[in-house]
Amino acid sequence: MSDTFTALRITDAGDRKTRAEMTEMTLADLPDLPVLVEVSHSTVNYKDGLAVTGKGRIARRLPMTAGIDMAATVVESATEEFAPGDKVILNGWGLSETEQGAYSKFQRVKPEWLLPLPEGFSPEQAMAIGTAGYTAGLCVQALLDWGLDPQGAPILVTGAAGGVGSVATALLARLGYSVTAVTGRPETHDYLSKLGATDFVDRAELSEQGKPLQPERWGGAVDVAGGHTLANVLAQTCYGGAVAACGLAEGPSLPGTVMPHILRSVALLGVDSVMAPKPKRKAAWDLLNKKLDRDLLSTMYAVHGFDELPDLAEKLMANQIQGRVVVNV
Ligand code: NDP
Predict the structure, then answer these.
(1) Residues 161 and 223 occupy one common structural domain
(2) What ipTM was assigned to the predicted interfaces of this complex?
(3) Residue 285 domain-assigned?
(4) CATH number of the CATH domain containing 151
(5) What is the span of the domain harbouring residue 176?
């Protein structure tokens, strides 16, 4: 084990701004938590993009090691639950916000944050899925629990060419749903067709204020956008349908009315990945394990070096990344 290693840390740049810096660290710099892990792979999610570029204030204390996702190997464990050599994954649980994160060769973590690496995925594949893909799993599981009928009207996926959207599209198509993809990037239509989307809606069609109730088009939806997009999706959802909402790529507002809910029994299912309890996490990973086609997964991501992290974060924020990225730590 080397004495020093590199971490990508968010530091105070003054004037309420932050800066991301490659920093040399030692094991003594890590928090005093029971499990020491060696991180092999991570990824860049939307929240990581916000944290690293400084476009969003994610870290609640500074300095903070960024990175909300890791695939890792246990090096030392003060609990019986995990032993040296165990392969594990960690998604969320406040990493990069209140807890030191994954963009570091070594990290100390709590055992209750760890899941064994799901059988059937390599560490690289688990990070190709990462929080974005696991959140797609939570959203699709929420729609399945709601009882959405595969024979019913098509399911809409917003931000389809992004991380959550790509995995949601592939999962829903594999489960037998007809998937309509919303994207602002027509050049991704071929990619989305390969994932299983059979129809497309231009992102701009949903981005303006619409009527409270619109013609019924969707049996349900996975929404990563929020804002007018979500309000319009709800207004276009068929009687008795459900929308799993997890994101705010358009914005945090919800400029709609109660009409779809009280006149069409449309359900708005909120989905959080960060503090989701372990049974929900296991169900989502189980769904991904059973239903995510590995060949398709391999078309959804590219692998990058650790030093590319700042650039990848900028590109994600500029909507220049298709699907997912894996980072070799
Ligand atoms: P990505 O950046 O990979 O994808 C976001 C996609 O949203 C883009 O690719 C784009 O898709 C679309 N988009 C961008 N801007 C707009 C806009 N103004 N209006 C509508 N759509 C837009 O991010 P992720 O997939 O990683 O995350 C998506 C969202 O989900 C984020 O808001 C993120 O914070 C949230 N999230 C929430 C989680 C939770 O626990 N609740 C967990 C994970 C993510 P296209 O180019 O196809 O139009």
Answers:
(1) yes
(2) 0.99
(3) no
(4) 3.40.50.720
(5) 132-270
Distance 161 CA to ligand 1 centre (A): 9
Looking at the fold, whether 245 and 303 belong to one and the same domain comes out as no
Residue pLDDT, tens place only, 215-246: 999 999 999 999 999 999 999 999 999 999 99
Ligand 1 centroid–CA 10 distance in Å is: 22
| Cα dihedral 46→100→271→47 (10° resolution) | -10
Report if residue 99 sits inside a domain. yes
Q: What does DSSP say about strands 179-183 and 197-202: parallel, antiparallel, or unpaired?
A: parallel
d(Cα 233, Cα 182) in Å, to the nearest integer? 11
Residue 86 lies in a domain: yes
Structural domain count of the chain: 2
Which residue intervals of the chain are DSSP H helices?
Answer: 46-53, 123-146, 163-174, 189-195, 227-236, 259-264, 278-291, 294-299, 309-317
Q: What is the pLDDT of residues 11-25, one digit of tens each?
A: 999 988 999 999 999
Q: What is the helix (H) or strand (E) element at residue 326, kind and residue range?
A: strand 324-328
- pTM comes to 0.95
Is the domain of 41 the same as that of 165? no
CATH number, domain with residue 26: 3.90.180.10
Distance of CA 80 from the midpoint of ligand 1 (Å): 38
Place of tokens 């792979």: 41
Identify the residues whose C-beta falls under 6 Å from ligand 1: 45-47, 131-132, 135, 158-165, 183-185, 203, 207, 224-225, 229, 246-250, 271-274, 316, 319
Q: Which residues of 26-65 are buried (b: 16+ CB within 10 A; e: fewer)?
A: ebebbeebebbbbbbbbbbbbbbbbbbbbeeebbeeebbb
